Write a sequence for this structure.
């Protein structure tokens, strides 16, 4: 039986680990042809080997999503290899410094905004230009529950993720009549390698996160990946402009 993304050319940024890698593996299972992008080449190549072993037709492109030329070249590589771009998951992001708003340096602020917000916009711009030529396409951006509510000691991250949620809504309205759907996933803390590193330094944070979750556990990367796959599939054909929580009920509190 054909997968829900059978033959669809799909670009995933931040594909070298965590949610990006999990999504690449789910997309491979569902029959997608993959363009994997990450600034971390070693991790990207590892993901590439995984999805090829699963039978996917895939390539890896080194891409810093905060660099316009890298982003444009990645979309060109996708179209050169596969002829089109059906789905894009703009997932690359960084956490940034953990400081109060008045303690944040301009350099720290600019870096987080450059990757987490401007980088998403750069990706969307290049992807939409290609999708307009085709007359169809689907984009999913990674926002966060911090794009839906406030958080302490992550002002740049919170601002960027709110920006992604707003940008998603704006683009969804702009391109709905052109056959392009745009949504965002808004994960709660997900048990990724990056989060595990933080927990190793501060085990009390993991316990605090778990206590705050209605399900009393953290999410897994694969749980976000399944939501992204659904949003990119034809099963979600009437869904656009949605910041979609994948949060174990956190935002329902």
């Amino acid at each position: 039986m054909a997968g829900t993304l059978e033959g669809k050319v799909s670009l995933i940024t931040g594909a070298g680990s965590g949610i990006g890698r999990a999504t690449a593996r789910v997309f491979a299972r569902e029959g997608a042809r993959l363009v994997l992008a990450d600034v971390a080449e070693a991790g990207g190549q590892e993901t590439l080997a995984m999805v090829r072993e699963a039978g996917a037709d895939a390539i890896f492109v080194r891409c810093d999503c905060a660099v316009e030329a890298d982003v444009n070249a990645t979309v060109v590589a996708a179209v050169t290899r596969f002829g089109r771009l059906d789905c894009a998951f703009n997932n690359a992001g960084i956490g940034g410094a953990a400081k109060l708003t008045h303690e944040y340096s301009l350099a720290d602020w600019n870096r987080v905004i450059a990757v987490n917000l401007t980088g998403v916009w750069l990706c969307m711009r290049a992807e939409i230009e290609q999708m307009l030529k085709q007359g169809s396409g689907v984009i999913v951006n990674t926002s966060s529950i911090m794009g839906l509510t406030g958080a302490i000691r992550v002002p740049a991250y919170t601002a960027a993720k709110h920006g992604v949620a707003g940008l998603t809504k704006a683009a969804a309205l702009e391109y709905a009549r052109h056959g392009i759907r745009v949504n965002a996933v808004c994960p709660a803390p997900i048990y990724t390698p990056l989060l595990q590193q933080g927990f190793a330094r501060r085990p009390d944070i993991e316990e605090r996160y778990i206590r705050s979750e209605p399900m009393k556990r953290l999410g897994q990367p694969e749980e976000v990946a399944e939501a992204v796959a659904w949003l990119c599939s034809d099963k979600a054909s009437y869904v656009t402009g949605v910041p979609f929580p994948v949060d174990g009920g956190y935002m329902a509190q």
Summary: The two ends are 40 Å apart (CA to CA).
